[in-house]
Amino acid sequence: MSAYDDLMAHERETQALSQVAGRLGWDQETMMPRGAAHQRAEESGAMQAVIHARRTDPQRGEWLAEARAADDVARANLRHIRRDYERLCRVPGDLAVALARLTSRAQGAWAEARGRDDFAAFAPVLAEVIALKREEAAALAEGGDLYDALLEDYEPGMTSALLDEMFAAMRPRLVALRAQALAGAAPPALGGSYDEGAQMRLARDLAEVFGYDMTRGRLDKAVHPFSSGSGDDVRITTRTSTLDPFNCIYSTIHEVGHACYEQAINPEYALGPLGQGVSMGVHESQSRIYENQLGRSAPFCGWLLGRMRSVFGDIGVADADAFYRIVNRVHRGYIRTESDEVQYNLHIMLRYDLERALIAGDLLAADLETAWNDRFEADFGYAVDRASNGCLQDVHWSVGLFGYFPTYSLGNVYAGCLNHAMRAALPGLDADLARGDLSAPTAWLRENVQRHGGLYEPRETITRACGAEPDAEPLLAYLEQKFRALYPG
Question: pLDDT higher for 107 or 376?
Answer without folding.
Answer: 376
